[in-house]
Amino acid sequence: MAGFGSLAPKTKNLVVAGGLTGFVFGVYFYTMRAVGGSDELQVAIDKFESKKVSNEPDSNLASKIN
């Protein structure tokens, strides 16, 4: 940290910004990995779509009979 004081102000800002950005991305990716990274909304949509497709042939059959 002794050499940090001799840097230009904009360079210091870039070093701090890079460190903070790296920290934030690290926390984000760690959290996503710890949680499991599954998108619960997409899983629910897929489940709904599969039920809709499985029920669809029955409704088409009923409309042809009437």
How would you explain this protein's 3D organization?
The structure is a single chain. The chain is mainly α and 66 residues long. Helices cover 80% and strands 0% of the residues. It is built from two helices and no strands. The protein is rod-shaped, with a radius of gyration of 27 Å.
As a whole number of angstroms, the C-alpha radius of gyration is 27 Å
Protein structure class: mainly alpha
Helix content: over 70%
Care to count the β-strands? 0
End-to-end span in angstroms?
82 Å
The helix tally amounts to 2
User: What shape does the CA trace take?
Assistant: rod-shaped
Describe the protein's topology:
Layout: H1 9-35, H2 40-65
Can you summarize this structure?
This protein has 66 residues and is mostly helical. The protein has helices spanning 9-35, 40-65.
Key descriptive features of the protein:
66 residues, 80% helix, 0% strand, mainly alpha
